[in-house]
Specification:
CRO Repressor, four-stranded antiparallel β-sheet, 46% helix
Length: 226
């Protein structure tokens, strides 16, 4: 009995350390590959805990191997947007400018009832109040309300007669890599981008950590730290 207790305690400590090293995310915020690793770690920890005939190291080594895989995947996903899209997928726009994208619902196998439930969970009971609904890669729903339905902020008080429709922000540069496709879709070219960077005393794209075009079409950029 004491052996089982000690083994369970040791495995518990190993799993806690591994989960802490994986990062501070709730289960609902995990990407699919992270959730799979979590399930596998739980299974690997349970087997030697139940069977004292299995050496403890046989459970610890696979758990550490899974941690290494998770760290590597997270690193490559951080450095490469294409790799992140491959392993995590892309956010899906289910409502675009107030209209439901039926083909996207069919592709994701999301019913209209599922969509309505997700909107209600975000306190939007009418689809007509929603400008954009985006299904994130972790399964969460993000909502951009129509201009006349969004909460009032201080900046709105001085422009009540000039409320503009919301647009989605556009990510242009991530970790020194320019997304040419998104730049063209936004209606700009590289000359315009370089001009915007020079205004912020940035000489080249490789020096940019993150740059995006906000929903009100204002360019923001943050330089990399050495």
């Amino acid at each position: 009995m004491l052996v089982v207790f000690v083994r369970a305690l040791l495995l518990y400590l190993v799993v806690v350390v591994v989960i802490r090293m994986m990062g501070k995310r709730q289960v609902a915020e995990m990407q699919p590959f992270e959730l799979v690793i979590m399930i596998m770690i739980a299974e690997l920890a349970a087997t030697p805990m139940e069977d004292v005939g299995i050496p403890l190291i046989n459970g610890v080594i696979p758990i550490i191997a899974l941690l290494s895989i998770q760290v590597l995947i997270s690193y490559f996903a951080l450095k490469s947007e294409k790799f992140r899209d491959f392993i995590c997928g892309k956010p899906s726009i289910l409502i675009h400018k107030g209209r439901i994208d039926q083909s996207e619902l069919r592709r994701l196998r999301v019913s209209i009832n599922d969509l309505l439930e997700a909107l209600r969970n975000k306190d939007y009971f009418n689809i007509s109040d929603v400008e954009y609904a985006i299904l994130e890669t972790n399964g969460q729903m993000s909502i951009v309300p129509k201009a006349d339905k969004r909460p009032v902020v201080i900046s709105d008080l001085n422009s009540c007669d000039d409320i503009q429709d919301e647009e989605l922000p556009v990510t242009l540069i991530v970790d020194g890599r320019l997304n040419d496709t998104k730049l063209r879709k936004a209606g700009y070219d590289k000359d315009w981008l370089m001009d915007q960077l020079r205004k912020q005393n940035i000489d080249n794209v490789e020096s940019v950590f993150f740059a995006f075009l906000s929903s009100d079409r204002i360019f923001y950029a943050q330089e990399k730290k050495n």
